[in-house]
Amino acid sequence: MSCYRKLTVYLMRHGRCADGDILRGRTDSPLSEQGQEQMWNAWRELCNHLPEGKLRLLSSPLQRCSLFADSLASEMPEFFESPLATADWLQELNFGEWDGKSLASLQADYPKATAAYGCDPLNHTPPKAESVNELYQRISRGWSSLLQELLSSQQDNALLITHGGVIRTLISEMINPGKPPLNGIFSGLELPYGALLKIEVDAHEVDGDWECLPKLHWQL
């Protein structure tokens, strides 16, 4: 016996932050007013394209994501199946000793290391930082867990409010499954603040096992 489900997962990047051009990983930066407006604009755009059924709302615990997600859940509860939840796997890459430092100061103090990291982040990791491969393993486990939770709960739609590194890793997984992200995903892909993407997943159950085939959509 077989069964078919279509899951829809929306990815929203947080808006611009108030503390300028820093290497912002686990640094818990607040949104600027512009950043808040970018996220509300993304939400209004998403409302024009939502499928039938309520959303599961899941956010990074860092405040540039979670405070907006909390406002969304509080002000628009009719859109969501369950209360807001946060997930550690949706946190940004941890840049270790470089985290929170200005890009200008890093380039001035460590010109060779920052150039190497910018060109080839898979093989160059800042001191005491999370490697790109570790990021990939974290995101891969979290994504698989999310799909299983949706399939088990009979929910078909979710909104993830997260970070650029997480979204880039998921993009890479959609187009190059089972392998760490390509360098170009980080260095050559523009992902603006408030960016909104969609992943549709065709899920087929055969004899109790689900096979999930995701497809990335650049346009909602």
Topology (elements, then pairings):
Layout: E1 2-13, H1 33-47, E2 55-59, H2 63-75, E3 85-86, H3 103-109, H4 111-119, H5 132-153, E4 157-162, H6 164-175, H7 183-187, E5 196-206, E6 209-217
Parallel strand pairs: 1-4, 2-3, 2-4
Antiparallel strand pairs: 1-5, 5-6
Q: Can you describe what's shown?
A:
There is one protein chain. The protein is α/β, with parallel strands linked by helices and 220 residues long. It has one domain: Phosphoglycerate mutase-like (Rossmann fold), CATH 3.40.50.1240. The protein contains 7 helices and 6 strands. The chain has helices at 33-47, 63-75, 103-109, 111-119, 132-153, 164-175, 183-187, and strands spanning 2-13, 55-59, 85-86, 157-162, 196-206, 209-217. It has a 6-stranded mixed beta sheet, sandwiched between helices. Helix 2 (63-75) links the parallel strand 2 (55-59) and strand 3 (85-86). Helix 5 crosses helix 6. It is globular and about 55 Å long. The two termini are 33 Å apart. 34% of the residues are buried. This is Histidine phosphatase family protein. It comes from Shewanella dokdonensis.
Give the gist of this structure.
With 220 residues, the chain is an alpha/beta fold.
According to CATH, the fold-level topology is Rossmann fold
CATH class identity: Alpha Beta
Helix content range: 25-40%
Structural class, please? Answer: alpha/beta
Helix and strand run: EHEHEHHHEHHEE
Radius of gyration: 18 Å
Count of structural domains:
1
Tell me which CATH architecture applies here. Answer: 3-Layer(aba) Sandwich
Unreliable residue stretches: none
User: Strands of the biggest beta sheet: in what spatial order?
Assistant: 3-2-4-1-5-6
The fraction of residues assigned to DSSP E strands is 15-25%
